[in-house]
Amino acid sequence: MKNVSIVAFILLALQITGCAVNVPIDVYDDQIVDQPTHKNHTKVVIFVPPEVAEESFGQVGVLAVGVLLDWQLAAGDAIADSSKNFFENYFSNVEVRQENYVRGACSDCALAVVPSIDKLAINKVTMQSKVAMNFSIYDGEGAKVLALPITGRSKVLTLERFGVGVVAASVPVVSSFAANHVLSKSVEDAFEDAFWKLHLQMKEHTETGALARNWLPKELRKKENYGRYEFAAERAIIGAGCQFPQDGLRLVQTGFEELYEAYCWKQEPFMVSCNGSQCNLIYSEPHQDDINGFAAE
Known about the structure:
- This is Lipoprotein.
- With about 300 residues, the chain is α+β, with helices and mostly antiparallel strands.
- It is built from six helices and 13 strands.
């Protein structure tokens, strides 16, 4: 009876103080085995607004790991790097910008991705997490290409699985360390399930669906300045299997000799060097230590 009174006193004290515990969520970094057959090299920028990056979700009174503690699940901390790690399975040039996305303002973006976390909740009995996210994808002009809402759920978690102890299933665990461990693992499990479901959609979209084409950044979709030998460079990459207007060129060096970067669907990045009407294709050789990292065809 005395022990019960002590526990009740501790819980009452916690209720009065309103103790809040911040629970960090680890970044999702799994490499997807079932990757798409082609990784596009055009640029994708992930825009994470400050309010999303700083977002946390409250969980009060979680049965089995505590009754009165106020846990703040810091899921927003992980969304930027988690999204970057995920989209690198499909695009070789992925950048994260911690700012609000303004439609059409990103001149160097082939695609802009805006992730959001709409809901995060944990079942008080099973400790199963549910996370609802949405990934909005825009083209270089700011037109929406796709909206991908995804819901992930963790497995039904047992406290034994995380080494908290069987006794904890019937009495509250005052230890915030034990509670943090269970809560974070449950949420991370839900994130993993969500990204796997997102992968199944992305694989389809990048191989046969809305993303199965070359997406050019705004600066290439509506060009105002052209190189002197750009027409010859276009003919050279058409001969290499590129198509217009889906594919494009970017002038990276001017002068007596001009150098272009080619954007071509389902081809590795390559350069085009032009001196007058004579153009050479220059392909990357990452395993050689030549000074430029490229070799002429």
